[in-house]
Amino acid sequence: MIIAIDGFSSCGKSTLAKQLASKLNFIFIDSGAMYRAVALYLINENIHLDNIDEIDKALANIHITFEKIDGINTTFLNGNNVEQDIRSLKVSGHVSEVSALSEVRKKMVALQRDMAGNQGIVMDGRDIGTVVFPDADIKFFITADPIVRAQRRYNELISKNQHAELHDVISNIQHRDKIDSTREDSPLVRAQDAILLDNTDITISEQFEFAMNIIHQKYPELAVK
Ligand code: DC
Fold this sequence. Notes:
This protein is α/β, with parallel strands linked by helices. 52% of the residues lie in helices and 17% in strands. A 5-stranded parallel beta sheet has the order 2-6-1-7-8, with helices on both faces. A 3-stranded antiparallel beta sheet has the order 3-4-5, with helices on one face. Helix 2 packs across helix 4. The radius of gyration is 17 Å and the shape is globular. Residues 9, 31-32, 35-36, 95-96, 99, 125-128, 176, 180 line the site of 2'-deoxycytidine-5'-monophosphate (DC).
């Protein structure tokens, strides 16, 4: 069974995905972390985005895995824990351009389908319900006011002792919204059968309740576990 959660940047998609995975005993896969890991690799190796040959070579050398450390989903790039580095504003400023490249998307989509295997999964991203798993059992499309999203992301960065200015976070979110939804390959769009959830004025637990109600209506046997 697959639950797909798509939506704009910093909308709380992964918060909801983690809660659902934990409640339903499903595997959570953060597809954005994979694009972030690729962006980090290209930044570290100084590879320019117009150099497609170098990017192809780099993709062959990129191995992304996830592990749970102290209950927290942690991203590894070639065996190194990059969970903190991939959340930096530097990577956030670069990742939309990286994820617009078809070469990168092709590899990530294949990896995402492989990772899913035959287990119950919750995957969040931009194209999960449209491209990666168009037949997903339940699809959510999440949105919220951009300023509210920026404030949430800013608070998160500050709470993790990362340096950030609110105006930089706002412009990063606007920049990513624009590129993610206008790129040619797999732009961010709501799948026709995705349930729309605007969480501007609702709390994390209200959002969780809303999603569980939908799941409960469709699969009563799942939600009571
Ligand atoms: O979910 P996130 O903010 O961590 O994602 C980082 C970037 O990766 C986002 O700006 C767009 C891209 N992305 C994508 O293109 N497709 C996905 N399935 C997930 C993320």
